[in-house]
Write a structure and sequence with these properties.
The chain is an alpha/beta fold. It has one domain: Putative cyclase (Glucose Oxidase, domain 1), CATH 3.50.30. The protein has 5 helices and 11 strands; from the N terminus they run E-E-H-E-E-E-H-E-H-H-E-H-E-E-E-E. The mean pLDDT is 97.
């Protein structure tokens, strides 16, 4: 038997977005009584809601997200409890927890501020020591309940991207994984020719 935990944010009209991004417009343009069918239209940036960044976002890489093999978005999950840490630094105990090719999720509880200005202005950031550890471990992806792992000039992004590590931003519900030892992460993005894409990120637990 398996349990599924949705770690993704809803996509809605005027949903919270980073101050750098344009507003999201989701609206109905066809109606059953008038058009004989229902249809909605979506205008959205690729970095809205729960999404995956690729190296193309901030480096001169030329691989679009739809060209990345699908197996890169699936793997064994590892949750690190980093609540009340800023910056978020490497700890020796992580060496025994994080495996090669893992998908590491950082639980900061900052997601509690989602929808507020402070979510984007008061986020904790990742220290170089932790980013470099992830590089040594050759992890597949780093996910977090944050809008970003760092601030301008985005050095942590670049450390990860230079080593082909993808980044998942704006996760939620990570508290539900606190007592889970083994789980898998499924995070397929839209198959879109872009530098990033929204994703439905799911934790799968065997129970």
């Amino acid at each position: 038997m398996r349990k599924y935990i949705d770690l993704s944010r809803d996509i809605t009209h005027d949903m919270p977005v980073h101050p750098y991004d344009d507003r999201v417009r989701l609206y109905q343009d066809k109606f059953l009584d008038k058009d004989k069918y229902v249809n909605y239209r979506l205008e959205i940036g690729m970095h809205s809601g729960t999404h995956i960044d690729t190296p193309m976002h901030l480096t001169d890489r030329e691989t679009y997200i739809n060209e990345i093999p699908i197996e890169r978005f699936v793997g064994r999950g590892v949750l690190l409890d980093v609540r009340n840490e800023d910056p978020i630094k490497f700890k020796n105990e992580y060496a025994d927890i994080v495996d090669d090719n893992a998908i590491v999720l950082l639980f900061t509880s900052h997601s509690d501020k989602y929808g507020t200005k402070e979510y984007y202005t008061e986020q904790p950031v990742i220290d170089n020591t932790l980013a470099e550890f992830f590089v040594r471990k050759n992890i597949k992806m780093l996910g977090m309940d944050l809008p970003s792992p760092d601030n301008y000039p985005f050095e942590i992004h670049k450390i990860l991207f230079d080593n082909n590590i993808l980044i998942i931003e704006n996760l939620t519900n990570l508290s539900e994984l606190m007592d889970v030892k083994d789980f898998e992460v499924l995070a397929p993005p839209l198959r879109i020719r872009a530098e990033a894409a929204m994703a439905r990120v799911i934790a799968v637990i065997d129970i």
